[in-house]
Specification:
alpha/beta; 6-stranded parallel β-sheet; two-stranded parallel ribbon; about 40% helix; binds NADPH dihydro-nicotinamide-adenine-dinucleotide phosphate
Length: about 325
């Protein structure tokens, strides 16, 4: 029997993995396999910053495998304001998870980094070899250093004990159960929420910036399948970028157009070019992923966005807004 513990199981990525495990046919490529027990936990079950609670959690479920998603996650503003919280909380969470997984003799742990922990000054496209090649951007150095340390810890556990610990590096994720709070949301859920309010209140839909920057977005349900594949097939300590291709970049304008279409918004829609654009593009290469996984079909961006908008409209009352 395999027991797969998913930390952060109540978040955007965790609920997507749960959805895939519960809806794909049993025994199929991404469905639940015989002998597998999946456990999805959120912070109400254990505060993973706390050593004692983390130990109890691992003793309760005795996982053989861990997909470790739990993290203090947030947008730019909150990252800038609370650098020590982002550093310390994430260090504690990661250390408690990896230490207990090691003590219990877990067969595999996949932790989660992010392309936003890469060096500020780096040659593009990003690939798996460039994580530590320079300082992260000053705005999120707490989060970035804590996340980078996971890769350092994975190597140390492997070198000293031979543990099979590794990490995944997703680009921008979106999908059902995202954080739609306008203060702290990432760009896509923020656009959806703004457009929703513009439609409801009969006000203009104003997008910040020129709309020109390009980003790689991955649908949470595609990312979920990639995590499930990694759990079963990927046994290397080196991290793996989980992303759509560099040729699949979408401009903020394309994204906003797609939101307008999916929402059926017909009111005034414009760009506020007095607001900052951020970096023009920061492409990540998914060559390593494609060379390993063989055939994999990403959901077309417009379709994934439409599914997310539908979910948001249907679940507005209970969504994270
Ligand atoms: P969410 O914010 O949606 O979810 C965070 C999860 O972590 C929740 O389940 C939350 O539990 C849990 N959590 C937070 N603090 C604690 C704690 N102290 N103890 C136990 N559990 C805790 O995050 P995402 O799903 O977006 O992110 C998942 C992973 O993916 C993270 O590691 C993140 O860094 C990474 N990532 C995300 C990207 C994105 O665009 N969203 C991009 C790249 C990487 P609860 O809700 O119950 O409190």
């Amino acid at each position: 029997m395999s027991v797969i513990l998913v930390t952060g199981g109540t978040g955007l990525v965790g609920t997507a993995i749960k959805h895939i495990i519960e809806t794909e046919p049993e025994g199929s490529r991404f469905g639940k396999r015989p002998g597998e027990k999946w456990v999805f936990i959120g912070s109400s079950e254990a505060d993973l910053r706390n050593q004692e609670q983390s130990k109890k959690l691992f003793e309760k479920y005795k996982p053989t495998h861990v997909i470790h998603l739990a993290a203090l996650v947030g947008g730019l503003f909150i990252n800038m304001k609370k650098k020590l919280d982002f550093l310390r909380d994430n260090i504690l969470i990661n250390d408690n998870v990896l230490h207990n997984a090691h003590e219990l003799g877990c067969k595999k742990v996949i932790s989660c980094l992010s392309t936003c922990v890469y060096p500020d000054k780096v040659d593009y496209p990003l690939d798996e070899t460039k994580i530590h090649l320079g300082l992260p951007h000053e705005s999120n150095f707490g989060y970035a250093h804590a996340k980078r340390l996971v890769d350092v810890q994975n190597h140390a556990y492997k070198d000293q004990f031979g543990d099979n610990f590794t990490s995944a590096i997703p680009t921008n994720v979106f999908g059902p159960h995202d954080n739609f709070d306008l203060e702290s949301a990432h760009v896509l859920p923020a656009l959806m929420h703004k457009c929703y309010l513009a439609k409801k209140n009969g006000t203009p839909f104003v997008v910040w910036g020129s709309g020109k920057p390009l980003r790689q977005f991955i649908y949470s349900r595609d990312l979920a399948k990639l995590f499930i594949w990694m759990l079963r097939e990927y046994d290397d300590v080196e991290p793996l970028i989980l992303s759509v291709g560099e040729d699949e970049e979408v401009s903020i304008k394309q994204a906003a157009d797609a939101v307008v279409k999916a929402m059926g918004f017909t009111g005034e829609y414009r760009f506020d070019t007095t607001k900052a654009d951020g970096q023009f593009r920061k492409p990540a290469s998914n060559k390593k992923l494609l060379s390993l996984i063989g055939d994999f079909e990403f959901t077309p961006f417009d379709k994934a966005l439409e599914e997310t908008v539908q979910w948001f409209q249907q679940n507005y009352e209970n969504a994270r807004i």
